[in-house]
Automatic annotation (TrEMBL):
Pfam families the record matches: Methyltransf_11 (PF08241)
Claim: Heme is one of the keywords in the record: no
Compositionally biased intervals (Basic and acidic residues): 264-273
Domain of life of the source: Bacteria
Region (Disordered): 238-292
Keyword field: Methyltransferase, Transferase
Lineage: Bacteria, Pseudomonadati, Pseudomonadota, Gammaproteobacteria, Oceanospirillales
Name this polypeptide is given: Methyltransferase domain-containing protein
Biased composition (Polar residues): 242-263
Entry GO MF terms: S-adenosylmethionine-dependent methyltransferase activity
Biological processes annotated in GO: methylation
Length: 292
């Protein structure tokens, strides 16, 4: 990877972006982006995270036990734990990351959708993916229209709207939980104004210079298969009562008497009354003793 043409191109793009982050505008943007990311990752502990950033590290406030930084070449790696590989072929197992951060790289990659697909592969089911990008409909987007011919960072990239990336995330089965806009400043101001920043963040106005997308893997419900009974005709109430053992036994214990049944019972009662009643002495045979 470090000797390939693609790696060399990405290394040049990364190096060309570093002077911007040293300017007042770049530092102000980075601080507001870090302020947006802080509440999202501060509560997550343990696990692993990967940050593909074109600027300084943003995950310094996270309590994740194993943070990893990505680099296109070994010469630009910050430490031994830096991941050096193609952005669309991450050398990580499936669904192993709790936090996946892509900071402005989707605007400077030729096949950005492949990188997003690879980032979705390595994000765990309970993990989150965070994307940072420049807002093309903000004040800085209007300034960019006047600087199209400039090939310096950040004007040289392909700016995509948050709604466009929402469609990309849906393609890889990720759902956008929220979109936060940050860095509100005028066209002539280099630093994000404190008043405008608090106002824009409070109402989340889509006029900030940058946006942060927080996405999570869609949870699919297990399919439910209903049982189908092979009854060709609708069941009658009588047949349903027969199938209920408890109910049928209860109803059969108290059958309804018809008029004919009442008449026969009355006749039997009269016949019993007309039978002769034998005396007790007649029932005793000769020689039997009566025991008191």
């Amino acid at each position: 990877m470090s000797n390939s043409t693609t790696a060399t191109t990405l290394a040049k793009r990364l190096q060309s972006s570093q002077p911007y982050w040293q300017t007042e505008a770049g530092r102000s943007l980075w601080e507001t982006q870090r302020a947006c990311l802080g509440p999202v990752v501060e509560s997550r502990v343990g696990g692993h995270s990967l940050e593909m950033s074109m600027g300084p590290a943003l995950m310094t406030m996270s309590a994740i036990a194993h943070p990893i930084r990505w680099s296109p070449t070994r010469q630009l790696a910050e430490n031994d734990s830096t991941l050096v590989c193609p952005p669309d072929q991450l050398a990580l197992p499936d669904r192993c990351l709790d936090v996946m951060v892509i900071h402005h790289w989707l605007e400077h990659l030729t096949d950005a959708h492949f990188t997003l697909q690879e980032a979705a592969r390595v994000t765990a089911d309970n993990g989150i993916m965070v994307l940072f990008g420049f807002n093309p409909i903000g004040v800085s987007g209007l300034t960019r229209q006047l600087r199209k011919r400039q090939q310096t960072f950040p004007w040289s990239g392909t700016w995509r709207s948050a709604s466009r990336l929402r469609d990309w995330l849906a393609f890889v089965d990720f759902e956008v939980e929220r979109v936060d806009y940050c860095c509100f400043r005028g066209r002539m101001n280099a630093k994000c104004g404190e008043y405008w920043e608090s106002l824009g963040r409070r109402h989340n106005l889509p006029l900030g210079e940058s946006y942060m997308i927080q996405a999570r893997r869609q949870q699919r419900q297990a399919p439910v298969q209903r049982l189908k009974f092979g009854l060709k005709a609708p069941a009658s109430p009588a047949s349903l009562g027969v199938t209920r053992s408890g109910s049928s036994a209860h109803y059969q214990a108290h059958p309804t008497r018809t008029p004919q049944a009442k008449t026969r019972q009355t006749d039997r009662h009269k016949a019993d009354l007309q039978k002769p009643v034998l005396n007790r002495s007649a029932l005793n045979r000769p020689g039997d003793q009566e025991i008191d």
